[in-house]
From TrEMBL:
InterPro entries: AAA+_ATPase, ABC_AA/LPS_Transport, ABC_transporter-like_ATP-bd, ABC_transporter-like_CS, BCA_ABC_TP_C, P-loop_NTPase. It comes from Gymnodinialimonas phycosphaerae. This is ABC transporter ATP-binding protein. Keywords: ATP-binding, Nucleotide-binding, Transport. CDD domains: ABC_Mj1267_LivG_branched (cd03219). GO terms for molecular function: ATP binding; ATP hydrolysis activity. Residues 2-250 form the ABC transporter domain. GO terms for cellular component: plasma membrane. Signal peptide: none annotated.
Length: 263
């Protein structure tokens, strides 16, 4: 589904992404791991159109999407979440979901005067869909709660719910487990697996929690210093000498520490 070819992103003399090439297969849940500063989030930002690349190409389903802005990629079904959830805090959780689909009739001044029935019908349909999403994510009890008042993990679930309000094809999840307790992280993991198996979502997941990666992801891609270091199953990644060196800088003699560090 996604092919990245020799991608570079430079900030002055700093090469945050330095010749990364990778492939994300349709229907997969691909994990992306690496030490802090490996370039993972910058890679996500370039793929998702948040940052323009310095050079290289990004291809989605055979179409060159390099440098397209996020709203165009949104229309093509490519979505991403962020390490810190971006909710509209004063709106309810249901309202946060209802506002996601673009091109709603209520956005037109003409329709607010002459298309009120159309707007009302559309809002009823959106409300029903939002409630279905909240139930799917097991947070239907938060429907009327202001989004700014729910927990960090519940905000991450709400971000995942936004992707369900449109026809998402591939979703890039950036540290979905950051600051989330284990119970909610399991709930998020369950939702990702169900979306993948039942609705055909493709995911690429940045995460430092290797138990979470091991449960969800195959393959796993490891980045270091802006490029792809290794790819395979999590067990293969853990056994890779270069990966161990990248995480610990001390080689095979400290291999057990990699396991303890969760990488």
């Amino acid at each position: 589904m996604i092919e990245v070819h020799d991608l570079h992103k430079h900030f002055g003399g700093f090469h945050a992404v330095d010749g990364a090439s990778l492939r994300i297969e349709t229907g997969s849940i691909t994990g992306l791991i690496g030490p802090n500063g490996a370039g993972k989030t910058t890679l996500f930002n370039v793929i998702a159109g948040v940052l323009p690349p310095t050079s290289g190409r990004v291809v989605m389903d055979g179409e060159d999407i390099t440098g397209l802005p996020p709203h165009e990629l949104f229309g093509k079904g490519l979505l991403r979440t962020f390490q810190i959830a971006h909710e509209f805090s004063s709106m309810t959780c249901r309202e946060n979901l209802m506002m996601v689909p673009e091109g709603q009739s209520g956005e037109s001044l003409w329709n607010t005067w002459f298309g009120r029935k159309r707007i009302a019908d559309e809002e009823r349909a959106l409300r029903a869909k939002a409630d279905e999403v909240l139930e799917f994510l097991t947070i239907e009890h938060l429907a009327e709660q202001p989004a700014g008042m729910v927990s960090g993990g519940q905000k991450k679930l709400l971000e995942l719910g936004r992707t369900m309000m449109v026809d998402a094809k591939i979703v890039f999840l950036d540290e979905v487990g950051a600051g989330v307790n284990r119970t909610l992280l399991n709930t998020i993991g369950d939702a990702i697996i169900r979306l993948n198996k039942e609705r055909g979502y493709t995911f690429c997941v940045i995460e430092h929690d290797m138990d979470f990666i091991g449960r969800l992801c195959d393959p796993v891609i490891c980045m270091a210093e802006g490029h792809v270091l290794a790819e395979g199953t999590l067990d293969e990644i853990k056994a890779n000498d270069q990966v161990i060196e990248a995480y610990l800088g001390t080689g095979l003699k400290n291999k057990d520490q990699l396991e303890e560090a969760g990488a």
